[in-house]
Every structure is written in C-alpha cells, then in structure tokens.
Amino acid sequence: MPLDPNQSVDAAIRAHPALMQVLIREHMACVGCPLVTFCSLDYAAAMYGKRLVDLQRRLDGEERRAST
User: Per-residue pLDDT tens for 14-53?
Assistant: First the structure.
C-alpha cells in the first residue's frame, strides 16, 4: 500500500510497522520523537532531505523481506 504524504508519521508506522526500520536506517529521528503524531510523512521527509518515493521503495523492500 502506498504511503500517504499527508498521513502523520505515527499513523504511517501503525499501518506499516516496517517503516520504523526504514526511518532508523535513513537516520531519521522520527521513531521515539514526541512530535510524531503531528508531523506528516511529507514534512518529515523534507526536513531530512529525503524523497517520499525513496522511502516508499525502501519500505516495499522491508515488507518483502518480512514476508519471506
């Protein structure tokens, strides 16, 4: 399922638990941040100089690895 750029990081992590690993590997401090319920994925990606399409690609890979 594609990531919604307007979804909060918290909601995205709940929908895609593997996203936690992606954020950690990308050196994004979202996991454990108290503002995670307020930041959109689009905003968080921009703050870390990441493209949402790249995060989606990495998430797809994580989810594939987890299902095998």
Answer: 999 999 999 999 999 999 999 999 999 999 999 999 999 9
Contact 12, 58 (CB under 8 A): no
Cα 32 from chain centroid? 13
- Contact assessment for residue 29 and residue 47, using Cβ atoms and an 8 Å cutoff: no
CA–CA distance from 25 to each of 30, 58 (Å)? 11, 10
CB atoms < 10 A from the CB of 3, how many?
Answer: 20
Tokens of 7: 């979804």
